[in-house]
Structures are given as C-alpha cells and as structure tokens.
Write a structure and sequence with these properties.
mainly alpha
Length: 101
C-alpha cells in the first residue's frame, strides 16, 4: 500500500472520531446524566480493547530470558497497576480539581 493511500484511509477512520467527539461534547454539556453514561461507555470500550485485542497479543510474545510464569506475572502486574492508578484518579478527582484551580 502506498503512503498516500494509507494516509487517506487513516483520515477516513479519524473523521468519525472527530464527529463523535463533537456529539459527545454537545450531549455532555446539556445533561449531567449523559456524562455518566459517556464515561461508562468509554470505560467499557477501553476494557474491551485491552482484554480482547491486547491480551491475546501479550500471550503470543515469546521472551527467552524469562520463564512463562514470570512473563505472565509481569503482564498481569502491569494491568493491575494501571487499574490502581485509574482508581486513585477516580477517588481523588475532586481534590485534584481543587489543586489545579
């Protein structure tokens, strides 16, 4: 595939994302309840991508220096640290907003 064809397809796939962003901002500005649903849907999509697309790719990697158990443990530890960071951000959201303001 030539670079301009790939750039064109990349642009075509980015246009719906930009349109969706404008729709999401418009809905979020008018309804507090919609904000919660938008965040729930976004979190579900991120979990879906992480668990369905990335996890099988992690199983396919072969690391000759570490055993399979150590490699698996490090991958799960990385996921758990990521979830812990997001949980801390969610729990202390209001304190962080006050720090920024």
């Amino acid at each position: 595939m030539k670079w301009y064809t790939a750039a064109f397809y990349n642009f075509l796939s980015a246009v719906p994302a930009i349109v969706g962003m404008f729709i999401g901002v418009a809905i979020g500005n008018h309804s507090v309840v919609a904000n919660s649903w938008i965040f729930i849907i976004a979190a579900g999509i991120f979990l879906y991508v992480a668990l369905v697309d990335m996890l099988p790719a992690l199983y396919e990697t072969k690391n000759k220096r570490r055993t399979n158990h150590v490699h698996w443990f490090l991958q799960i530890l990385g996921f758990l640290i990521g979830y812990a960071i997001l949980l801390v951000l969610a729990l202390f959201e209001h304190q962080l907003e006050n720090l920024i303001e």
